[in-house]
Amino acid sequence: DLNLSYDCSSILWIPQGAAFPLAEVGINDLADEITDFIISSRNIKPWKIVVASGTGTVAYYLNKNIKEILIESQLNIDIEVVTAPCATSSKQLLYDMRKYVVDKNTEAIPNVLNTDANALPLRIFSKPCKEHLDIWNKLRFDTNIDTFDLIYAPRAFELLLSKTYRSIDTNQYDCLYDKHDINISYYH
User: Fold this and answer.
1) Contact 111, 176 (CB under 8 A)
2) Which of 49, 54, 64, 71 has a 20 to 30 Å separation from 77 between CA atoms?
3) What is the pLDDT of residues 124-149, one digit of tens each?
4) Torsion angle, CA of 84/87/89/92, rounded to 10 degrees?
5) What is the Cα 133 distance to its own chain's centre?
């Protein structure tokens, strides 16, 4: 017999993924670290922070907090968070981010790498596929970094390399790196 009676009143249940308002606390620390790194790098080129997303919560809160940091500190640094929908389509990810946004600050919703513009196939989340394994192997070989995960990174880079994203402001497709004079940083 298992005794399953336990006082759960002091337990904080956190849902799977970051689709939880308290996630913002940790993501705010991440936003501080990213902006501190960018400031200390003294690199004045624009920065694109690409975030692999399931629900989009990390990308949303990261974008929101980086914007707040830049406004509060009156820094004139071009930092844009762009998210890669790894678990769903770009359209569904935008819908999810609007649904999960607790404070209704839709201006903080980041731009989304587009799953439709280049006829990229919609992948079944976390289902192995040869194309993703090839991307993962190429990432490891080209970067000498062995810590790319097999679930999010291949899809994020598949979308990143497709070069387009849907602008929230204009609902148009824009080129992620139409200029070579930008910094791109991947986070997951």
Assistant:
1) no
2) 54
3) 888 888 989 998 898 888 888 888 88
4) -100
5) 21
In Å, how far are 19, 47, 49, 79, 157 from 185, measured between CA atoms?
23, 7, 5, 10, 11
Q: Are 158 and 120 in contact, with CB atoms under 8 Å apart?
A: yes
- Which H or E run includes 160? helix 153-160
Alpha-carbon distance of 121 to 164, in angstroms, equals 15
- Match 């914007």 to its residue by tokens: 67
For residue 170, pLDDT beyond 90: no
pLDDT digits (tens, 9 = 90+) for 16-74: 555 667 778 888 999 999 999 999 998 888 898 999 998 888 899 999 999 999 999 99
- DSSP H helices, 4-89, are 23-41, 57-73
CA distance 81 to 99: 19
Q: What's the pTM?
A: 0.80
| 93 membership: H or E segment, kind and range | helix 90-100
Token digits of residue 168: 């929230």
Token duo for residue 130 = 């040869």
